[in-house]
Design a protein that fits this description.
288 residues, mainly alpha, three-stranded parallel β-sheet, 14 helices, 5% strand, globular
Length: 288
């Protein structure tokens, strides 16, 4: 069910940006934009969050560059109309970055400009804890939930994010969750290969509990089989550029790339592991 929903969300978010840039009249030719790729990279995360994981009382700060996917989800939830979707980045319409002031019917925390949404979520969680501890929760009001912030990895380049993380009290919050989309893409550069390890270490040093979700359920199942440890090591040793190129290879070339070691020799353990996986299936598996 979640997979069918996320396909709809991906299609709708792509259509939103296409409509804003191509189908909607634009007499003066002003650039509209829409961060289509950055939105696509959080479709699975947002689908799982909004249609499975959210609990009553949770507050969400959506990744600013993922707004088209967020608006698509709000449409599927019945909180936006088709006309609303057609107003993406139009004057008075759906904002480029989710705005509590301009679209209060659907947005809980504003997330523009970059980095501000993450910090807003931090201090919102701290404020909620303070109010609950000092004043309690009224019997006729729901207990405050979690504050969840979704942000991109390049967004963490903003200095105000790390200034906030140095506040000791924020490292002790139990009602706060950050989801960092490691898509490695930035308007300024490709985020370095080392950044994933650095971010993990920086957050842990600030007192955070860090969970890394890198591989999907199908790959994890394959890793558990004989020879799976060799395949995991092969994939995790790849640079970002090599892994992305692997995703774009023709189906028949993916197997050769995976079973060929750096020395040029064939890794027989990986070859045996993948023997019962078809070429088209292997391409989809690597993308998991």
């Amino acid at each position: 069910m979640l997979d069918s929903i996320q396909k709809k969300v991906l299609w709708l978010s792509t259509w939103l940006v296409h409509h804003a840039n191509t189908l909607r009249p634009n007499p003066d030719g002003t650039k509209v934009g829409g961060h289509q790729a950055s939105s696509a990279s959080v479709v699975s995360l947002l689908t799982a969050l909004y249609f499975e994981a959210l609990r009553p009382g949770d507050l969400v700060a959506v990744k600013a560059h993922g707004s088209p996917a967020f608006y698509a989800i709000e449409y599927l939830r019945g909180r936006l109309t088709v006309d609303d979707l057609k107003s993406l980045r139009a004057f008075g319409g759906l904002q480029a970055y989710p705005s509590r002031r301009k679209n209060p019917q659907i947005v809980e925390l504003s997330t523009g400009s970059m980095g501000l949404g993450a910090v807003t979520a931090l201090f919102a969680a701290l404020g909620l804890r303070y109010v609950e501890q000092h004043f309690g929760v009224q019997s006729n009001t729901p207990r405050p939930g979690r504050v969840i912030a979704m942000l991109g990895d390049a967004e963490l380049d903003e200095g105000n994010v790390w200034e906030a993380l140095l506040e000791e009290a924020l490292g002790e919050l139990g009602n706060l969750l950050w989801i960092v989309d490691m898509n490695r893409q930035s308007l300024d550069r490709i985020v370095p290969d080392s950044r994933r390890r650095q971010l993990r270490d920086w957050f842990r040093a600030a007192g955070w509990h860090v969970i890394e979700l890198r591989w999907g359920a199908r790959l994890e199942s394959l890793f558990a089989r004989s020879g799976g440890d060799r395949l995991r090591a092969r994939l995790e040793a790849m640079s970002n550029a090599e892994y992305l190129s692997l995703l774009r290879l023709p189906p028949g070339s993916v197997r050769k790339a995976l079973i060929t070691a750096a020395s040029g020799e064939t890794d027989r353990a990986i070859e045996r592991l993948l023997a019962d996986v078809t070429d088209p299936g292997l391409g989809a598996l690597v993308a998991d």
